[in-house]
Structures are given as C-alpha cells and as structure tokens.
Design goal:
This protein is an alpha/beta fold and 202 residues long. The chain is built from eight helices and four strands, in the order E-H-E-H-E-H-H-E-H-H-H-H. The chain has helices at residues 16-24, 45-53, 65-68, 72-84, 105-142, 156-166, 172-176, 183-192; strands at residues 2-8, 32-36, 59-62, 88-91. A four-stranded parallel sheet has the order 2-1-3-4, sandwiched between helices. It is elongated.
Length: 202
C-alpha cells in the first residue's frame, strides 16, 4: 500500500498543494493522512494513525522532509524506525530520499547523508528564525516599543483600592466596590504593579 502524509502547521494554512503533489504521485485520497498541527514533535493524531497502519512493504510519501517533522533528532529516529520495520519512505521534493527503489550500498549511503543534511538544515533554519525574532524584539524595546498590556491610567481611588487589597485591608470584591474596577482586575493589577507608594515619594 502507498500512503501519503500531509502536515500544515495551523488550521488556517492550506494543504491543497501537498494534496495535489500526492495525487500526482498516485496516492489514493483515501490513503492520505492530514494533520494541522506543529511539527515540533510526533504526537499528532493522524500521523500516529498512519504509523499504526503501516506494514512491511508499504510506502509512506511526504512532500518534503520538514512535513515529516521539524526536529533533527526526531526525523532521524522516525526514519530509522520505519526503515527497520520494512516501510519505504519517498520524499517528493528530494528524489534521492526514496527508499522504495532497490538501491545498492552506495545509494543507501547517499540517501542517509542527504537525509541527515536536510534534517540539520531544517533545524538550523528554525533556530535562525527564532534568533531573528528575539533580536527584533530586543531592537524594538531599545526603540521604546512596549509589549504586553497597556498600562491603565488609574485614579487615586483605584490606586487606594489596590493598596487596600494588597495590604489585606479588604477583599478583592470589597476593594472593587465603587472604584470602577472589577475584582479580577484588582487582583491582576496588585500582582503586576506596586501602587503602595504615593506620588512624589522617593
């Protein structure tokens, strides 16, 4: 049997391109398994269903190596596990990664080298993206851009209510009465900010 595995990272992404590639590779639509989930790990419902169904002699088709997973070690582990069970793997975007064909020892060696290289590149690219995001956030903060909730412009009555709650002089509901803040907001602001000090105090 020939099965196709398709993965997109979120529910708002479209899997049509991968489906068309599977159909061109003669994969029956009834044998396609689709996950709309991150590839950070292999705990994905449809992937696990497919793994349970695969038998020796079957072939699993994927569009590209990163559709199998995003983790270097995880990809290699899954690849070796499937291969040891007699399951062939075919990566459409990389013909060298096709264990469904009879290969000599040189061909298998090339396939292993390419797999490890591509897995490494996929993981390195994710680390570069994460690094660029962190650098972008740091640069934005340096420019004065603030992240998170916008601070509230509180009245003196509201500041006193928060101070009373923090000091244990009133419950959150008692403190919120008549000050225009909900008791849940009182609790949150008491954790996030220090309103005990009066304006002008050093």
């Amino acid at each position: 049997m020939i099965y196709g595995y398709i993965r997109v990272s979120s529910r708002d992404q479209n899997e049509d391109r991968q489906i068309l590639a599977m159909q061109a590779a003669a994969v029956d639509p009834a044998c396609m398994f689709i996950d709309k989930q991150s590839g950070a790990d292999f705990n994905r419902p449809q992937y696990l269903r497919l793994i349970r169904r695969l038998r020796a002699g079957d072939t699993m088709v994927i569009k590209s190596i990163d559709r199998l997973g995003r983790n270097y070690d995880g990809i290699l582990e899954q690849w070796r596990d499937l291969s040891s069970r007699g399951v062939s793997i075919k990566v459409l975007d990389m013909p060298l990664l096709d264990t469904s064909k009879d290969r000599d020892i040189t061909g298998k060696l090339i396939s292993d080298i390419v797999l490890q290289l591509l897995s490494y590149v996929a993981q390195t690219e994710r680390e570069f993206i994460r690094q660029r995001q962190e650098e972008g956030i740091a640069a934005a903060k340096a420019r004065g851009v603030h992240f998170g909730r916008r601070p509230l412009d509180l009245t003196e009555q509201q500041k006193q209510a928060i101070s009373d709650y923090k000091a244990g002089k009133a419950s959150s509901r008692q403190a919120s009465a008549g000050c225009g803040l909900s008791h849940t907001t009182i609790i949150r602001l008491a954790k996030d900010f220090d309103y005990d000090r009066k304006e002008g105090e050093e």
